[in-house]
Amino acid sequence: MSSWQRYRIANTGHLIPAKPARPIRTDTSTITAADPAEPTQPSVMLSDFLAPLHQLAAAMESGATLPRAPLHDFAAAVENLGDQKAKFTVADLFWLANSWEGFGNRAQTPALASRCYRQSAAAYAFAMTIDSIALPDRNLAERRHQELSAKSIAALQLAAHPRPADSPPVSQTH
């Protein structure tokens, strides 16, 4: 098999945004959105230290929205890995970024969504600091960092200035 291996992350309804599946290429893998009906076991080769995070993410599958408590637990687990000086790979950070973005898409409030998108952007920014990151991965990480930073700001603005329920969607007001 070439250096580009194809991986699928199972149950990515919350890990990868509900858009048409688009591959996320890293220097060692391609991660694509999987069919949500597939089993919960991941088929992507992530670092072993991410197993508890994957279990938390899988537990967050139930329910249409995510309240603060499970998001806080996930953030605490990520912070704990940082305290342990875990050595993240680019694929690990891309998975983490996709997880946070998916959580933001399902967050209970715009303020929580903003925090999730900010965490996602931070994971992409962290990926850009890895010396061994391939140029296409660096470019992807930079683009996604910018997109998610903007998405975080937009969600925060919505939290600060909610639109009345009877107002037309933003796309129809311009």
Mind explaining what this structure looks like?
The protein has 174 residues and is mainly alpha-helical. The chain is built from five helices and three strands, in the order βββααααα. A hairpin with a 3-residue loop joins strand 2 and strand 3. Helix 3 packs antiparallel against helix 4 (110-128). The longest helix has 26 residues, at 135-160. The model is unreliable at 1-43 and 169-174 (pLDDT under 50).
Secondary structure layout:
Blueprint: E1 5-9, E2 24-25, E3 29-33, H1 51-59, H2 68-83, H3 90-106, H4 110-128, H5 135-160
Parallel strand pairs: 1-3
Antiparallel strand pairs: 2-3
Helix pairs in contact: 1-2, 3-4, 4-5
Main features:
7% strand; 3-stranded mixed sheet; 174 residues; 3 strands; mainly alpha; globular; 50% helix
Average pLDDT = 75
Approximately how much helix is present in the residues? 40-55%
Sheet/helix structural class:
mainly alpha
Largest sheet entry:
3 strands, mixed
Radius of gyration: 16 Å
Give the number of DSSP strands.
3
Which series of helices and strands comes N to C?
EEEHHHHH
Could you give the order of strands across the largest sheet?
A: 1-3-2
Q: What is the count of helical runs? A: 5
Residue stretches low in confidence (pLDDT < 50, at least 5 long) are 1-43, 169-174
N-to-C CA distance = 50 Å
Q: Given the C-alpha coordinates, what overall shape results?
A: globular
Share of β-strand residues: 5-15%
Task: Offer a concise description of the structure.
It contains 5 helices and 3 strands.
